[in-house]
Amino acid sequence: MITQEKINNLVQLLDSASASFPKRTALIFGSKQINYRHLYHSTQRLSQALYEIGIRKKDKVAIWLPNCREFIYSFFAVLRLGAIVVPINNMLKREETRYILEDSQAKVLICSIDKLEDSKNLLSRISTLYHLICSPLPKGENQALNFSKLIQESQDLKVAVEINEGDLAQIVYTSGTTGKPKGVCLSHKNIVANVKACAKAIHFSKKDCLICILPLFHSFASTVCMCLPIYKGARIVIMRSVRPFKRIVRAIFRNRVTIFIGVPSIFSILSEMKISAWQWLLNSMINPIRLSISGAAALPGSVWQRFEKKFRRPLLQGYGLTEASPVVSLNPLKGLRKPDSIGLPIDKVFIKVVTKDGREAEVDEVGELLVKGPNVMQGYYKLDAQTYEVLKDGWLYTGDLAKKDEDGYLYIIGRSKEMINVRGFNVYPREIEDLLYQYPKINEAAVVGAEHKHRGEVPVAFVVGSKDLVQSEIIKYLRANLASYKVPLKVIFKDSLPKNATGKILKLQLQQEIKGIFG
Q: What is the CATH code for 419-513?
C-alpha cells in the first residue's frame, strides 16, 4: 500500500484512501452515502468500460456534468487509464461547448440528461467525438451509452496503465473573458503538489468533512473540494446547487461538516443574515464548522470582519488561478490574518512582485504578481505563443497587480487589464470597490473603466444594495476618501451583478453595458 507521502499521481489518492479506509464514507449525496471501497470499484469498472470503447493513454474525455457522484466516478475512471479529463462548465451553451470539444479533440463526452440533446447534436457534427455516455439515460435512447449500466455490467480494469507524475491529468478551459477559452494543461504532479500543500496549510485530516457547493468543473473545487478530502480519506458532502440555502445549512448540521468553502457573495449574504438570540447560542455551541475558506474572487475586508464577528469561526481568504492548479496563497489558520490580504504563499510555492521594468517591487509598491512552484501549469494547450507570454524562466506571470506589506502578506490590487488610466494616473478598481463595500447598505460593488469623449478613460461604479441608496451621497463619500481623479464619474444601481459559475463578477460584461455612455 502506498503511503500518503509517496503519492505522486491522482489515481494513487483514491487507491491509498480505499486501501486504508475501505468502509469509511467518501461521498454523501442527498440521502446516499458511498464508502471508499465502493468509490474505488466504481471507478475501476467505469475505466474498463471506457477502455472497451477505445479510450487509451493521453486520449481526452470531456465531462459535462453538474455536481454529482458520477462526476467523481468519471474523473478518476478517466485518469486510471492515463487519459486526460476535460471538465466542461455546466453553464455553457451548445456552441460554447463545441469549441472546447473540437479544440481538445475529446473522444468521449459524459453528459447529464439535460445536456443530452445538445450532446447528440455535437456528436453528429464533431468528427473527433465518437461516443456519448449519459447519466441517467432516458428509456429508448440509442445514441448514447448508459452510465449506470456501464458500471454495473463491467469488471474492474483488467490492464495496468503506468501513470507518471509528469503526465497530463486535466485540460481546464479558462472562462474566456478576454477571447476564446484557453486550455490550461495540468499534470498529475501539479495537482498532487497543490493538494498536499493545501492539506498542510489548513491542517486537514481524515476526521474532516467538507461540503462541496462550488462547481466541480472548476479547478478550485476539483482540487480543494474533491482531491484534497480523498487524499486524506475524509468525507465530501456534494451539493448540486447553493439554492435553497436552507438545504445547505441542514446538510452542514446533519453531516457534521467541518470545512465550508465558498465564494465572497455567499459569505456576504451570511454576514448580513439576521440571527436570533437562540440561533446565536446554537451556532456557538454546536456548529461543527471549524473554518471557512473564500476563494475564486476578492473578499472585501468588511465582509471578512462581519463574518468572523458574527460566527466566531476563522474565515481564510486565499488566492489562486487555474494556471497554478489553482491555490497560490492563503491567510494562515494559526497566526495573523489580515483584512483584504490574500495571505502568504503555501508550501513550496514562491512569489514575487515585479514592476514594469522588471525590478522587484519594494514594500507596498504595486507590480505584477509572479508565481513559481510545482503547481504551475505545463502550458496552454496548442498555444505556444500564449504559453511563452506567461511562462518565463520558470515563473508564471499572472497578469494580476499586487503588493506586499512589511510582513510579506500579499494584496491583490486588480487585473493589469482592468487598471484604469485617468489622465495619466493609474486607478485600481479594487481600491474604490473596497470603499464601496464599507458604505452602508451596499452589498456588492464593481468598478470598471469607460471611454469618455473628452476625458479619456474614467471609472464607473456598479452597486447592488438597498433601494434608498443615492448616487450623490455615494459620490460625496468617495470624494472624502479618494483623490478626485479616482472618484467614479457615475454610479449605476443594479439588482444583481453578472457572475460566472464561481461567483467572479464579469467585468467585461459590465463594460459592454456602458459602452458609448459618455459619447
A: 3.30.300.30
